[in-house]
Design goal:
2 copies of one chain form a homodimer. Chain A is built from 13 helices and 17 strands. In chain A, strand 13, helix 9 and strand 14 form a beta-alpha-beta unit. In chain A, helix 2 packs across helix 3. Strand 2 of chain A pairs antiparallel with strand 2 of chain B.
């Protein structure tokens, strides 16, 4: 079954706002095996919206529209959809009464304008809206269906889930889509592709065929595996086998196959080892600590962080010797290592991370250009086996250098924890 | 002049990826007074893509498509656009030679498949691509124009800017759009709207009419003012007057009218006062420091940050008395104030911020539910005038509580700096 999504709202045609409702809708439809083939984003223009409905209905069995169901004059989705299907609109007294009751429950009188939300295309079924005044509408035409949903995500989401569960799952046929996201770091997109490409055909050729998409961004690559099967168990077996194959090909570079973020993976490893971590950050400016503490329960293993932006703080709070900074510069491997040791000494953390670098846009030199970041991971008392130190050269602006620096630091902690366990 | 955008790529129809090229394109088109009336997102299906072009060309004078110009079989934009306009495709030998040269410059032979990128609809003009192999195409039909651009942002952006500057600005007519973003914090969307709504008609009624859009997210509200005028000076005057009016209505709640973020506004105020700031963070976990250090040049005024996630660190590193935590609890105004004082005492910072709260999802109580955040701003040595302490109750998940806590802390610093200057 093919679906189209129509997102309605003039604000979605400005440079400031992107339609995200359709991502949620796509995910829910995919779960019952329905693919989305077109998305159309239109403003509050009745003629354009009507033509979008006419087109969509001609092309696709299922059309889901969001937005434009409010009470004001620029809410034109009801009228446009009815016109496209050649249906007249009648007032549904029960809807108007429900809206009146909703207002009354807050001690208010329903404004006359809200009457418009009681207009229903002839033959349409009303989908109740527990979170707002705009009801949804379900309209069948021949073998096709048009569904109108409100635009506010809180109102749209529950209604869409009910529609999928109670109405669309039945119609969609036996196949479902099952997804797994493999997250990779420490190699480029092309090196990732090189390692797994020869497996694509094998994965696609099984009884639960898997389609693979590769998505690259700074500091991480994602492989999205999507299996299509009627049988959830068969899909799980196929995804499990493909994941194991990818793991064999990518080794430790594959850091997550179950949706966990890098910071969650590192957190779970720290918790399992019973180690508390301390973060000494210069160029990442607190981002490393902030990412680790984004994870619920991270107080179990995050001991402390120090943002040592000035040399004075590196010296006074972290105990980095002045002479070390004078000899090697603040952005250097010895200083990163001293910061990592210092945070352990000062806070009692079991494992220390030091990050120092040039985030830019200024401050770079020929020898240490913008994007140079030194990272040290130190477990005091273990000598050399307890130390990892590396220097990176990242591309991109200040924000990207900070992110990649934090990602590289987390990844070094992860590898150290895995390789020494 | 009305424009439509067609974004091509099956990955844009998955739950994982949103079309962002169109935001950039919309911004550039708006600058020369061209509105976007429809956006269509389609996969690699030639029939669907052709029907999208047929529709778009019938509705709009300008159609801009991105993506699907690569060398492989699933790159079908050239063929679909040519078919929609009834044009045949011919090979342009110069394009093929340019691609061969590009490969040769890296010591490579052009794969035969890249020949496809030399296919040009009859009568189309070729737009050079300095960053990749896929050239863009400019096709006129009657009074309308269809422009095909590559999908990778790096290749698309420069080409689009050249097209707008050299070709579209002329055709677009005299009007341009001029935008200003007003950022507001400390009041809800409806309280913001209440304060400015009565001005909308005045702003819209001037010689350079201004349209106003309000966008709300957690912790901040944006008012987008868009003036339409042939004369840049007239637009600037109108936007300046509307901004002054908004400032009179919103007072200090309006924190930015020139595109600066909250962290940049606070940074500029700190620099102007010659004050260095120290951050003592519990529940925000480093996010406050990270946001401040996102701003280039922030080493001028960020002295140090401490992430004190455990009570032990609050005591040992920040010098918060054990008894204070025992008496009031770690999430309390006295502890926030002691953290703010402590970071100044330990690091020599001139102004200290302490943030302690319950980010959730666990750790809440009836008395201090998830979302409770205490913030203190302390300038040592000034007594009461140097202290601001507040407790907030934020809604939303862990990430949103962290963000709103950091936003509230920055805003308290901003107001203190403005009110004591």
């Amino acid at each position: 079954m093919k679906a189209e999504i129509i997102a309605v709202g003039s604000e979605l045609l400005t440079p400031a706002k992107v339609d995200t409702n359709s991502l949620f809708i796509t995910e829910r439809l995919n779960e019952v095996g329905i693919d989305v083939s077109v998305k159309t984003i239109v403003g509050d223009d009745p003629a354009v919206l009507r033509s979008a409905f006419v087109q969509a209905v001609a092309r696709s069995e299922l059309v889901i529209a969001t937005g434009g169901l409010g009470p004001t004059d620029d809410d034109v989705t009801r009228e446009a959809a009815a016109a496209a299907l050649g249906l007249s609109l009648d007032e549904d007294v029960r809807i108007v009464e429900a809206i009146e009751t909703r207002f009354a429950s807050r001690g208010l009188t329903m404004p006359a304008i809200n009457r418009r939300q009681g207009q229903v295309p002839r033959g349409a079924e009303v989908l109740p809206n527990p979170h707002g005044t705009a009801p949804g509408l379900w309209m069948e035409h021949g073998s096709g269906v048009v569904v109108l949903l409100p635009g506010p995500p809180r109102e749209m989401r529950g209604m869409l889930e009910a529609v999928v569960r109670e109405r669309l799952a039945r119609r969609a046929g036996p196949d479902r889509l099952f997804r797994r996201v493999l997250r990779v770091t420490g190699r480029s997109e092309s090196h990732t592709e090189e390692a797994v490409r020869s497996a694509y055909a094998v994965w696609a050729g099984g009884p639960a065929p898997i389609a693979t998409t590769i998505l690259a961004s700074y500091g991480q690559i994602e492989l999205h595996l999507t299996a299509r099967a009627a049988d959830a168990a068969a899909a799980e077996v196929a995804l499990e086998a493909a994941t194991a194959d990818a793991r064999a090909r990518l080794g430790l570079d594959l850091y997550s196959a179950d949706g966990r973020t890098m910071e969650a993976v590192v957190g779970d490893l720290l918790r399992a080892r019973g180690l508390r971590i301390g973060l000494a950050e210069s160029c990442t400016g607190g981002l490393l600590a902030s990412r680790l503490t984004d994870v619920p329960g991270s107080s179990d293993y995050v001991e402390a962080g120090v943002v040592a932006y000035s040399n004075r703080i590196k010296t006074s709070v972290l105990g980095v010797p002045d002479a070390l900074i004078a000899e090697h510069g603040a952005v250097s491997e010895p200083v990163a290592a001293a910061m990592a040791r210092g945070i352990c000494d000062r806070t009692g953390a079991d494992l220390g991370v030091g990050v120092t670098g040039v985030a830019g846009p200024s401050g770079g030199s020929d020898h240490k250009p913008v994007g140079t970041v030194c990272v040290a991971v130190v477990r005091p008392g273990l000598g050399e086996p307890g130390r990892r130190i590396r220097t990176f050269r990242f591309l991109g602006g200040r924000g990207l250098v900070k992110f990649q620096g934090s990602q590289a630091a987390l990844d070094m902690v992860r590898r150290w924890l895995l390789e020494t366990s």
